[in-house]
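Hi, does anyone understand the following?
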Amino acid sequence: MYAEGRGVAKDDLEAVKWFRNAINNKGTEGGVAKYNLAFMYANGRGVAQDEAEAVKWYRKAADGGYIVVPQDNVLALSHSRRVGISDSERVRHYRQSAEQGDALGQLWLATMYWQGRGGLPKDETQAVEWYRKAADQGDAEAQNTLGLLYAAGRGVARDEAEAVKWYRKAADQGHAAAQVKLGDAYDKGLGVAKDEAEALRWFHKAAERGDSMAQYTLGLLYVAGQGVPRDETEAVKWFRKAAEQGDANAQHNMAVAYAQGKGVTRDEAVAVEWYRKAAEQGHALGQLRLAAAYMGGRGGLPRDEVQGVKWLLAAADQGNAEAQFGLGLWYIEGRGGSPKDHVEAVGWFRKAAQQGHPQALRALQKRGLGLIP
């Protein structure tokens, strides 16, 4: 009554007092009180928010067999690494919830089977069974997961049409990742007839919900004019949304847009900052372009070959052929005060040439060397 303001003024402090008074009552009444007290701790209502205390009372309610709205109990237990609950205890609560028909309990139990945690064997078949139970009850996350499993043929026979069926169920509920997958299916004709307009519609839905992959994909479609008129300004709008969420590919594309003045006013300094954001996330092309900016002292950066070679090496270590060729030149020329190192140079030329880099191949041929030592 006090928690919901039914028949009395809403008063969380008073509600907590009554829940505490009732926790020792037998049967359902005591279980309800424990559950509600856990809810108040979980949400910081009438008491200081305290996840550990919330989980303690969820556990007491669950141990007494009371799980009226078990998904809250399950969600609280999902924070076990912060509150010291073991995976095996989580599995016990998930199973209790799942067997009472709670979709979220079924989802989490499926995940534990999939990962082989909490004393459970790693069992894709069992995982699929519980994902399906949750999906059949309308859980969008489980529906999307089933779609992924059918697309990959994991725990079930590979079936693109069945994957699309489950993506659509989740997508119709607003599940952004499923909307992206459904858009991708229409874009590539996987499990459905290829349909650019339908692909665009689903990508737009996901992008408007803030999905960075969808935003990045929309940017690419506007750059290419695929299913939409070619529009660099619109492309940059969507790249920016994804980039601001930390999407490294979108950050790199923002850098390229500013470097080339496409869809935005050309600005090398801003381009360098976007290259740096992408590079710091391990984006090889971003690392390569940042290295070039340091080597040439461009975009407001001081000329700094030490920083340049640092980023060149980062890109080369990820297999970027252009960076590998650049390192070969670095060692051949002995730049940045480093001694010349023919052996190291040839090693990098070979790595680049093995990927088909024509200048690296010519550098080897010039020295009478081949792809294989």
Summary: The first helix runs from residue 12 to 22. The two ends are 81 Å apart (CA to CA). The chain has a mean pLDDT of 88.
